[in-house]
Each structure stands twice: as C-alpha cells, then as structure tokens.
Amino acid sequence: MKQNDRFTDDQLELLADKARQGKISRRKFTQLGMALLGATAVATRGAPVLAEDGQLVFVSWGGDAVDAYDDAYGKPFEEETGIRVRQDGSGPTEGAIQAQYESGSPSWDIVDADAFSAETLGKKGMIEPIDYDVVDKSKMREGFGWEYSASTYFFSYIIAYDAAKFGDNPPTTMADFFDIEKFPGKRSMYKWGAGMWEALLMGDGVAQADLYPLDLVRAHNKLKDFKQHVISFWGNGAESQTLMLNGEASMALIWSTRARLLEQDTDGDVSFTWQDGIISPGAMAVIKGNPGGAEAAMKFIASAQDPEKQLVMFDMLSQGPANPAADELIPEDQRRYNPVAPDNFALQVPLDVAWYEENYGPALDEYLAIVSA
C-alpha cells in the first residue's frame, strides 16, 4: 500500500471513530469519506460504509464485485432473513483486516479474504472460527474448508496469449511461457507474487507434483534471469487486460476471470490455456468482535453456499463455484471458463494455502526486491 493510501485509510478510520461516538452523523461520515477518497477511488473501491445495528457489512475488492456480491448474496439474504447487507469495496487486505480488529470497534463484518491471510489472522485471535454447524462443509470442494475461512469461489493464474500472433503454434505449458526463442515477445506477470513462484518453478522444469514446499531460491533465480523479458508486473486486473489488448505483451500470467473477458472482447484474438494453471481459492472470513455478530455472519456465509447464487457470481465475475453442485448449472458452452470444471481442474495445481500462510510475507519481500531492482 502506498504511503498516501495509508494516510487516507487512517483519516477514514478517524472519521469512523467520530461517527461511532455520535460526533458526526453516518451521512456526514459517508460524505467526508467520499471526499477523502476522490471520485476515481470511489468508483473503484466504492463509498466507505459504516456498520449499523442489525446489519452486516461485506467487504470486497471493489469495482464490479460490489454489484455482483449484492445481487448474488446480499439482496437474497435480506429477503430471507431481514438482515440488510451493505457492500464496501475498499479492499480487505490483511493489514486492513488487522487494523479493523485492533481498532477495538470494527466496522466490517465479513471479508472476501485470501484464505492464507484469514488463517494467519485467525491464529492471532482476530478472526472467528467458521461454525461448521451452520456452514455446510459438504457443500465445499474437498480440502478447501479451513478453520477460519470458508471457500466461496475459485480463480486461477493462467497463461493468456496473442492467438493472432502464434496462430497454429500456441503455448501449451508453463515452460512455453518462459521460452522466448520459440514464442518471441514481451511478457507480463503479477506484481504481488501469488502464483508466480509456482509458474517460475514449472517454467524451470519442476513438475506440478513436486512444487511444494516451493523452492524460493530456484524461483527467484529464474525470475532474475527472465526479468528482462517482462514488460510490466501488473498490480490489478484492468492493467493485465490492457497490456494484452494493446499488444505490449504477447503473453501474460493473469487471473482466469480476466482471461475470459479478453477472449470474449477480442473475438478470440487473445486466448488462454488452463495447462499448468494455479488454482486459487477465494474465501469469506468473519472479523472477531464484528458489529453484526458472528451468528448472523455465519448464516450469511451458509446462504452463499447456494449453487444458484454461485451461478450468479460465475455469470457476473467468472468466479468458479465453491459448491460442486453449481458446476452442472453452468451452460455447457460456458463451462470452459470455469477453473474448477473437472477437465480444467485436472490440468492445474491447487495453491497450497498452508505454505502461503507460513511463507507469503518474506517470500513477497524477496520477490518485490527483484522486481524493483
């Protein structure tokens, strides 16, 4: 997070404290918060939201996700329970979640979190354990329910490529991504590391089954050697799309959700492969001491397991459903975009949440040092 972003978040928290204490109205809090963020940030992150009694605040990563979560989960939950769910798109980073807890009076209830971040914070006492008497573990894919977070969707880090350029000889493996002689052109990779270590190692000849624990020395040596061919390390999905749309990169390691948009928007001039993709779970977690209460939050997570609701998320955001029962609801001509469809899943490797929980912070520091060198 940039320094000015930290400052803005601090100012928002000060305003929130005043609103909680009754020194300013909730309406004034929203007005001042939007003024602090500016029009561009509000469009991306959504307006700041302050929890109210009898309501839940769900925090996502902004943009189209705000409307999607409201349509798929928020509005139906209110109809079912009478509990309003307010959408906040300000981004539940690990640091932001921790700051909410440490404030002593969090304004967030449920967060769309990285599972490894939720597990890390949960073991520090900042996240509620998932109540599996309410949340149904049988409605999750095996191995994707954790102590402090419940899987709610999937996406993958996969290769998108210039199909018009490579024609009848497209890349088919992660080794091809790193083969500049056979597949010339600039590349783009993810700035924040996740999925990239696996890609680097597979590009260096490591088999999927042998990836974990990740050999960071080998991965980072590969990155140092390859970095000259990377035109940009993208930090958000829109940037990853732009690099492929304007031809700056002939290949990119991007989210599968963006790969679908690229293929559709270019009528196939940009395509993708699932081979050697890294499947990553999205999860919901509940902040300990949340204003709406753990009981209501767990009921919300349980309601989001409905396969029909997860189908809405697939249609709107291309999220792979966490509930396997949703797979068959996806129209047959759209199943190739589902990262966890059986045929697609079989080509990929699941991201090891336990490894990331223990190693992500230091690994990212080393990765970023190479990226910025």
TrEMBL record:
Main localisation: periplasm
Keyword Transport in annotation: yes
UniProt-listed Pfam families: SBP_bac_8
Keywords: Periplasm, Signal, Transport
Gene Ontology cellular-component terms listed: outer membrane-bounded periplasmic space
Localization per Swiss-Prot or TrEMBL: Periplasm
Molecular functions per Gene Ontology: thiamine binding; thiamine pyrophosphate binding
InterPro entries: SBP, TAT_signal
GO biological process: thiamine transport
Top-level taxon: Bacteria
UniProt entry tagged with the keyword Signal: yes
Record family assignment: Belongs to the bacterial solute-binding protein 1 family.
Record-given protein name: Polyamine ABC transporter substrate-binding protein
Organism, as annotated: Pelagivirga sediminicola
